[in-house]
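COURSE: Structural Biology Practicum
ASSIGNMENT: Worksheet 4, Part C
STUDENT ID: 0417
INSTRUCTIONS: Below are two proteins. For each, the amino acid sequence is given first, followed by its structure token string. Answer the questions at the end about the second protein only.

PROTEIN I
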Amino acid sequence: MIKLFADQLVFGWLGLDTTSQIGEALNFFIYDSIKIIFLLAVMIFFIALLRSFFPPEKTKAVLSKYKQSTAHLMAALLGVVTPFCSCSSVPIFIGFVESGIPLGVTFSFLITSPIVNEVALVMLYTIFGWKIGSLYLISGIAVGIIGGLIIDKLNLEKYVEEYVYQIKKTKTQLKKSTWQERINFAKNEVKTIVNRVWKYVLLGVGLGAIIHGYAPAAVLAKYAGDNNPLAVIAAVIIGIPLYSNAVGTIPIVEALLAKGVALGTALSFMMATTALSLPAMIILRKVIKPKLIAIFITVVGLSIIGVGYLFNFIINFI
């Protein structure tokens, strides 16, 4: 429905060419802005409704029954089955944080969700075979778990914006409340949080729209070719500013492989583009402070670089 509206507005009422860069960019901006803000509102509403029965203390008590590694694994697996790009994962991340779920566990979800999803996996299995597809799946989950565990160990909760914890500390268990009171509570939460972040959503998606469809295969082939020992690092650095989902980057990976780029290098570019997109970081800035964003990019970036070199090494043995 949202896609049809965006198409009709841009290519119908405004009359822009479907193949023009400005048409594609505007269509992308309208579609993703509405989609992400709608998703943000829906997720906050239902999480707030749930929080009216289960305050943060109870949520933490449930999670405490699991070992730390198990909680991170569960969050990473949830990321696998949620087909979101990095910007679309942010609203769920916000809901997790304000619900009292440990910060590192929420990051395990945030990292894994854009890197791995079932549609991308089917395409990877079909194009590259089950060995490569399975290795990518395992690597994506591992990056999410490792990244989340490291962030847990660093105790970075102080770098979450204070208003998130103020929401979390409010009395959310409404005793003997009617359903209407709980619904009103959830509506107020939606209004409060969306009012805080919608500008960042538009800024992030707007940047993504400008660079949407940009596939720097030639640049990557030049700086991340087989003969460059720093190829994986170059691929990650080039991939971070871009914005796409895992499915959208697979054709780029095919083009890179055709130009002689090593598999691990191409897949590390894919991971960096999906997990560390600049638009997603802009949206996250409204929730977490710059130092935590920098740590997040560093931890995940280094993990992806390690995966890239590992792929390049083991590809000769499979």
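PROTEIN II
(use this one for the questions)
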Amino acid sequence: MSTTQMTRPPQTLYVTLRRDELRQLKDERDQLQQEVLRLRSYLQARLDQPADSKPALC
């Protein structure tokens, strides 16, 4: 028993953004990208440490 579903064409969503909203979103994106880079660097530094200097995980 299979159910046949009608497939609809994809819908297009139009959004209106003010310039200040767009600028804010871009600033937030840039901050998040910087945070990702900082966390990647932190994790890489932790992985590069010798095994005896790492704290034990509980």
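ANSWER KEY EXCERPT:
Q1: The chain has a mean pLDDT of 87.
Q2: The first helix runs from residue 19 to 48.
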